[in-house]
Amino acid sequence: MHCSPRFWNIFRRESWSLRQRVCDASRRCWCSHQGVSHERKEVGSMLLITCFTQCCWLIRQIETNTCNAFISRRLCRFAREYVYGDRDDWIMHVRVDSSPQFNRDYLVSEVDVVSLDKTFSSELDTAMQDVGFATRIMPLQILGRRATNTAYKYRALLRALRLEVGSEDLIKARTFSMLHDMGVESKLAMVPGFSSDCDDRWFDKALPLHDLDHGLHNVMLELNECWEVDFYNAWERQLNTMAKHFSKADNNERFVKQCIWDNPKIEGYARKKAIAGMFKSTCPTLVQHRWQYMHDVLVWVTDRRKFLMYLDPHIVSSRENSEGQSGQSDDVISDMDAAAFKLLYTDKLVSATFWAMCAVMLILCKWGHTVVGWLHGCWCHPTQDDRAKFRKKNKGANCKWSGRRLIELSCGSALEFLADLRSLRIENSSLAMESMGLLVKEQQKASGASAAAGDDMASDIISVGFVTAKRMLESRFSQLTSFVREPPWNLISLLQFLIVPASVRSGAVVESRQIAATMLQKFDQGKFGDVGDIGRRFLQTTHRSALKRWANSQDKFMDLSLFRALLAYASSLNVMQRLEAKHHLVQAGAVGCFPQDRDRERQHMHCACVSALS
What we know:
Blueprint: H1 5-13, H2 16-29, H3 33-43, H4 46-83, E1 90-101, E2 104-115, E3 132-137, E4 141-143, H5 150-165, H6 168-174, E5 175-180, E6 207-210, H7 212-220, H8 229-246, H9 249-261, H10 269-278, H11 291-303, H12 305-308, H13 335-346, H14 348-375, H15 384-393, H16 406-410, H17 413-422, H18 430-447, H19 458-481, H20 505-524, H21 532-539, H22 544-551, H23 560-570, H24 577-580, H25 598-613
Parallel strand pairs: 1-5, 5-6
Antiparallel strand pairs: 1-2, 2-3, 2-4
Helix pairs in contact: 2-3, 3-4, 4-25, 7-14, 7-19, 8-13, 11-14, 13-14, 14-18, 14-19, 17-19, 20-22
């Protein structure tokens, strides 16, 4: 790429000192775009810097791509020699997810390299903390729009793993779990090898796991089907409008100024100041395909429900997007949304129905929020205060066991959440009882009767929908988590003595031996049915003798190979949110150059450099 002669004439007319400064600047400009902007401010000659930018920008592109390729090759060699060597005792957990963007399907994969060299069954106090974790992103795989089935993604996953690990035999022997969502990737762990005589799984040691966070997300999204369609849509429209309005800081400030400080109904400076302090934080935005946002919105709204009634509904008017068209956006409030929202302040029955529905939905969303918090937590930091202290001490980093709850799940922790779900009652929530009481009173006033009547009353719709939602959540959550209590997943429960306090560890060891004896007995009697290749490895072939000695109390400590094999499976994640956060890497690809143009570009850059330095 040549520059116009006018730029070079300007360059030659400059002083020698400025020429030296620009030559030094150009060398730095070749490295990064930030260098160009920085030197533009220092040198002060806009035309001159533009000249060097046009001449040297291709240098930056090619040198960056060459540097990236060089670093990638060196990283792969380093990983194959020092991370994925066949000398140490390590295993890896694979997580796979697809990211459809730019008319293509990108396969994003990640592995946890788990080191078990320092873990011993005789050191129960430190066994869990001696497990080492190293997370690595696999090379990004690009698939076509029509190449998104299981076979193509299976080949892409193997290609990414081969680039990183190198040996297919090592990949097959060290892959102990595959975590995925409910999409096409869920079949990758069950795909056989490419050879015609191979009928078994290629990843024969990999434990198939589905993302419990993603599964619970799908379960909670079905809450809207537990109420009548028109009833739920009207309530959600009003809640969404309120969240959109109070998600803007300027709207909150205007509300505090006009409806709090200038409101004669609120007496006392201290009370007004306290109420104004509650609106310093904005309301979260309601996103329909992310149910966790509904929980955050309901918490924010219900905590301020008594003060939100001071809002002038005429302030909330319809807003269109930047193109003058209505649509679904954080800034768009349609005429229908604004009209439905104004009913909260003009119709007392509608207002009472809205707040009663908010209180009842909050009960269900709190249960789901508790489950998600537990799934993302760890056994060693059970409370939120413990996790906050750990993050503060470790500069914001989470515990390495966060999200690895397979031991507790195999022991039946999901049953405790089901019991909590069954115990949910409207009567147990003071907010729900207060809101439902106000709704019944408004219904009595509207009907003119002394008692609520009619099957289509709002209070009856809310109560019946609450019971329906509980039953739906119970069946879906039971279906989502019941597999963990079946073989071969429940073999991980033998390690329950690792996560209990030291004072009760001896009892947990006895219970672990009893569970092992029961499993062996049921397997021999044929009550387990098909336990899969992993179950047969523990109950029939490789680890059977060690498991039998453990069940019969012949070994004081569990056999080391059996212990490390169980711990390897127990160290897998059961949530995949960390991988979903890596989807932004799809947009971070460097701009490549065509090989046929590389020689011509290098010749142009050489000429530009010679002219600049002459």
